[in-house]
User: Which sequence fits this backbone?
């Protein structure tokens, strides 16, 4: 492992949680190993690790971009990550309001539906932990 991979893996675990990263690593095959290495190094080791903006803002940007592009599965994952990035539910709504204006109401509408469902799941899970 390189220093970049170590940094990327640490940040990936910080944002997405150990359980998610452990599942991704357990499901990794020789076929998708190069992709897993790419996202660990490039997305997490380069982009998310930059110190220019804090994780909260980076999380909001990611949520807005995923919603605007219609990447629903990834959107739910990053909504869950807000527990670790410091982005509040109000922050998420602000990002999705921008999506409505700049990427379209249908994309924002779908993203809001996903956010509501994901937050409800998070609330249920939190209730189980208490």
Assistant:
């Amino acid at each position: 492992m390189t220093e970049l991979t170590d940094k990327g893996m640490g940040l990936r675990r910080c944002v997405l949680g150990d359980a998610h990263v452990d599942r991704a690593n357990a499901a990794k095959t020789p076929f998708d190993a190069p992709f897993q290495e790419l996202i660990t190094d490039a997305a997490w080791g380069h982009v998310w690790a930059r110190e220019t903006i804090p994780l909260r803002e980076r999380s909001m940007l990611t949520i807005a971009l995923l919603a605007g592009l219609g990447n629903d599965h990834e959107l739910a994952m990053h909504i869950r990550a807000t527990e670790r990035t410091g982005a509040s539910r109000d922050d998420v709504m602000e990002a999705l309001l921008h999506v409505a204006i700049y990427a379209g109401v249908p994309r924002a509408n779908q993203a809001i539906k996903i956010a509501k469902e994901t937050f409800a799941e998070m609330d249920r899970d939190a209730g189980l932990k208490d």
Notes: The first helix runs from residue 3 to 16. The two ends are 38 Å apart (CA to CA). The mean pLDDT is 95.
